[in-house]
Amino acid sequence: MLSTECSPLCPFRAFKCTKNALVIRRRRDRLETICDWTGDRCIGWRCQFAVCMRHALLPEGTCSLMAEKKERKPSIDEEALRVKSQYTDIGRKLKKRGLDVEGEV
């Protein structure tokens, strides 16, 4: 599961350091973010020079793009209406081709 917290390893490649001090290095099997300006690990959205190029960084440090990724599960009624409309569309297409559909809804 993806974290909704903004990080320098943004999957949308939207994280930017306004000091151009962000360095991403590969350490063994993972990526490491270093701030060249301080010489320490990058603290991400907590840094005063952190910017989101897609304007998705919220004040509490979460990414609104990641929040949009969470899908809402449709209710059973919505799902039934969707299936019913698909079924009637398929039935119409089959009738055009001359096939008889049993059990019309």
Describe the structure.
- The chain has 105 residues and is α+β, with helices and mostly antiparallel strands.
- The protein has two domains: 15-69, no CATH class; 72-105.
- 26% of the residues lie in helices and 19% in strands.
- The chain has two helices and five strands, in the order βββββαα.
- It has helices at 64-69, 76-96, and strands at 15-17, 22-27, 30-35, 40-41, 50-52.
- A three-stranded antiparallel sheet has the order 2-3-4, with no helix packed on it.
- The longest helix has 21 residues, at 76-96.
- The protein is elongated and about 75 Å long.
- 10% of the residues are buried.
Descriptors:
elongated; 3-stranded antiparallel β-sheet; 2 helices; 105 residues; 2 domains; alpha+beta
Question: What does this entry show, briefly?
Answer:
This protein has two helices and five strands; from the N terminus they run βββββαα. It is of the alpha+beta class and 105 residues long.
